[in-house]
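ok so for the tutorial part 2 we go from a plain amino acid sequence to predicted structure tokens. step 1 is just haveing the sequence, like this:
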Amino acid sequence: MSAVVLVHGLYHRPGHFSPVADRLRATGAHVVVPELHRGSLAADTAAVQAAVDALDEPPVVLGHSYGGSVITGLRGAHHLVYLAAFVLDTGESAASLGGASRLLRDAIVPDTAGATRVLPERAGEVFYGDCPAGPATWATGLLRPQGPGCGRGAARHHAWKATPSTYVVCARDKAIDPALQRALAGRCGSVREWDCGHSPFVGRPGRVAALLREVAGTAPTRSNSDSAGFTVV
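step 2 — the prediction. this is what the tokens look like for a chain of 233 residues:
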């Protein structure tokens, strides 16, 4: 595998994917992690599309949470990986599909200029509750305010209808209802279910990197379970 694009979710930054990116780069992959928070779904999608277009070959593209809305609108990917993410169809947005869980909504408070932020004392439970304490604290410290509007955008293109795709359901997710994830997963070509919370790229980065190598065809397919305690179905 030589090209991977990692797309973060709301309130997150490219740095949240550094544990995954470092593992992939150590195996020779070219990894790009675009910065979102550009004011709208259309602007975020355009930024990631530019990153895809700049590569020498079609990449594996992973979208986490809101990042799934972004990668849905892409063209030119080799494989799409939706990690606890939104797989939009015509006229849908993350907000219209149900969006944030009640626990996440209760953790969000107003910030300046119409933006919102996640309370640090709540973020650990909502996003990183199953992660080791050190990585969870590190990831919480990276969170940033989020401008309005992104979660309400509708994709103009629906790449999952023509591009190979894999959905990873995070069965202990407290940010996005796993039942909604399972419904959205039915739109993808293959489905995995992991016994984890919302952010395995923080708590189990090696497992995420292994999946990306697998869908790229550079690692053996796993079945049943692995030593990290994740179930693959």
